[in-house]
Design goal:
The protein has 11 helices and 19 strands. It is of the alpha/beta class. It has a domain of 196 residues: FAD/NAD(P)-binding domain, CATH 3.50.50. The radius of gyration is 21 Å and the shape is globular. It starts with a strand and ends with a helix. It binds flavin-adenine dinucleotide (FAD). The site of flavin-adenine dinucleotide has 33 residues, from helix 1, strand 3, strand 9, helix 8 and helix 9.
Length: 375
């Protein structure tokens, strides 16, 4: 039984590790060159908050200790008002539970290395899916040396929010999609280590709630922080030079300025990312082609759950294969039946959490309510 996985990101690489344990012949096709030999893309979500949902999947393939060795536990959020003192709000009543800041690149590389070491797994880099016949399992990839055809018994699209597999299924008329773009974009900024130390408390997820805009910062193992500024998409264009950038941050994020010496360079050179929610129906066709992770149900990042949720997909698909005796034709619809309600719930919660993070966390009523909940 041969399985093609399109996309060797977080979902695809993890999926390859799980499927290899079933003795399947797995080929991972990835449009990029091997990320372990190149540089990370500039300004693309350098770190991720990984929670127990994601750790559970890593534990099942024996990778959790390796990944957690570099993780930075964040036990609460640290609110940065425009003026006044910082406010730390712990995530759990006892203050003992945390979400973990983990480097996206390191996590992806660890998963890829585990996948390539697994028996029966082959990885083809610089293979971009451009054509798919979902009923026959036939694929065409654009590669540096021209177009290459391939076939597999099962084709799994783990190729992210802009999924080419989903696009092909749409063109065939076997799935429908709705993409709700948020009227907000995001830009990454950086806070380097100061004299070799973290410039902010590394035990917290930092939030600068500003109503229509919001910034967050997560710690990195090299003692820097990566900040993500969320703002109505067109608003970014208003700041075009050092003076306007400096003036804006001095007014709205005054405590950031002394910590971010590369602010102007980051602001002018890092791209503005788009945010949206992907709804696809159904996620599978013909019992042999299916979508997982962001390709099926990308969500906005405000709950920090997209990758965690994608990891849960992989665990659930594996469970469905167990429960159907390895029948893909039965496992794929079962996977969708079991997962859809959960992914729709987290999509809604992620949107709701945006309002909470950019606005409510700073309100005295919210803080009081949280303290009563924790008491
Ligand atoms: P992707 O990570 O997008 O990977 C898809 C892979 O497919 C890529 O390697 C790509 O190169 C490849 N590919 C694409 N097209 C093709 C093609 N045609 N042929 C072959 N290969 C192809 N989630 C969390 O859990 N916690 C967080 O804190 C968090 N923070 C986030 C912050 C931001 C700003 C954003 C935007 C997202 C965040 N997420 C977070 C969500 C998380 O990034 C995604 O849910 C996760 O990356 C999904 O993984 P994936 O493998 O499904 O897709």
């Amino acid at each position: 039984m041969s399985v093609a996985i399109v996309g060797a990101g977080l979902t695809g690489s993890l999926l390859a590790c799980f499927l290899a344990r079933r003795g399947l012949e797995v080929t991972l096709y990835e449009r990029r060159p091997d990320p372990r030999t190149g540089q990370a893309e500039r300004g693309r979500s350098i770190n991720l908050a990984i929670s127990e949902r994601g750790l559970d999947a890593l534990r099942r393939i024996g990778l959790v200790d390796q990944v957690m060795a570099d993780a930075l536990p964040m036990k609460g959020r640290m609110i940065h008002p425009v003026d006044g003192p910082l406010d730390f709000q712990q995530y759990s009543a006892g203050g003992d539970r945390a979400i973990n800041s983990i480097g996206r690149g390191a996590l992806n590389n660890a998963l890829l290395t585990a996948a390539t070491a697994a028996p029966g797994v082959t990885v083809e880099f610089e293979h971009r899916l451009v054509e798919l016949d979902s009923q026959a399992g036939r694929m065409v990839f654009a590669t540096p040396s021209g177009k290459v055809s391939a076939e597999a018994d099962v084709v799994l699209g783990a190729d992210g929010a802009g999924s080419a597999v989903r696009e092909q299924l749409l063109a065939e008329g076997v799935v429908a999609e709705e993409v709700d773009f948020l009227d907000y974009g995001y830009k990454e900024l950086s806070i380097p280590a100061a004299d070799g130390e973290f410039a902010l408390d590394p035990g917290a997820l930092h939030i600068w709630p500003r109503g229509t805009s919001m910034m967050i910062a997560l710690p990195n193992p090299d003692r820097s922080f990566t900040c993500t500024l969320f703002w109505p998409a067109g608003a970014f264009d208003a700041l075009t030079d050092a003076q306007s950038i400096d003036g804006h941050f001095r007014q709205h994020y005054p405590d950031l300025l002394p910590l971010a010496p590369d602010l102007v360079d980051d602001y002018l050179n890092n791209p503005v990312g788009v945010l949206g929610t992907v709804h696809t129906l159904p996620w599978q066709a013909h019992g042999r082609t299916a979508l997982l992770g962001d390709a099926a149900h990308a969500i906005v990042p405000f709950y920090g759950q997209g990758a965690n949720c994608a990891f849960e997909d992989v665990v659930e698909l594996d469970r469905c294969l167990d429960d159907t005796g390895g029948s893909w034709a039965r496992a794929l619809p079962l996977f969708e039946a079991r997962r859809r309600e959960n992914t729709e719930a987290i999509a809604e919660m992620a949107l709701a959490n945006f309002v909470e993070m950019r606005d409510k966390v700073a309100s005295p009523v919210f803080r009081l309510t949280k303290r009563v909940e924790h008491a």
